[in-house]
Amino acid sequence: EIKIMGGVVTALNASLGNTLKKGAYDLRELFHATMESAIGLTLFFVAMWVFIFSFLIIANGIGSAIRNENTTCQGQLGSEKDGYQNFQCVVVEGGAIISTISGLIALSFFIRMFRHQRKVVRAINYLPS
Predict the structure, then answer these.
(1) Distance CA 94, CA 103 (A)
(2) Model confidence, pTM
């Protein structure tokens, strides 16, 4: 919605002759601040889940050492397994899923940042010297 309002203000500036230039700048800065906040929140939640699963993986390793079992999930979840084996499956598969998701999110942020940096460099080239 902020980006749409920024487009409207830019269109009005084009027709009125930059009378709303400060308003357009403020809306653009508000949009960027909102996006930075959303990115920060996303990174916080991903980091939180990775942190939680790292503790669960450590607990899985300790429990497997005590029970003298393998630390991987073998077979399918179900009633033929005891509770600890089901816990192992959830931890191992959940850790892999969270790692994949966090890697994809980080990759998308890096791609967006790279595109933004290219735009900034192009804009700098057009500045008067």
Answers:
(1) 14
(2) 0.54
